[in-house]
Amino acid sequence: MPRATRFVMNLPVRYRVQGEKGWSYGMSINVSASGLLFRADRQVAPHARMQIEVVLPGDEQGSARVAARGAVTRVSSEDPGADRLIAAHLESPDLVRSARSIH
Question: What sign has the CA pseudo-torsion 3, 66, 101, 49?
């Protein structure tokens, strides 16, 4: 099966592992129909279930975000000094209009 087309996009991301109340933050690197690769502000365990929101650029009618549940499919490094890249599979992404800023 061919790999999904990836689109390079640097967009704000917020995420939290299932069961957490607070959000962590990052920036997307690329997005596809099935997933997201993003630079994270902390490490997350492989296979962790999470909630993810990506803020889309706004226009004169407001802004929007993609909200989804997902699972971590890959992490780039467990070295605390290295960049933390997380790949996540997105399940049932939802487009939500008039998003508030996540930063």
Answer: negative
Largest CA distance in the chain: 42
Cα–Cα distance for residue pair 32/53, rounded to 1 Å: 14
Range of the domain at 25: 7-97
> Apex CA 8: angle with CA 58 and CA 21, to 5°?
65
**Mean pLDDT for all residues in the chain:** 86
Q: Is residue 102 included in any domain, yes or no?
A: no
Domain total of the chain: 1
**pLDDT tens-digit profile of 40-79?**
999 899 999 999 999 888 776 677 889 999 999 999 865 6
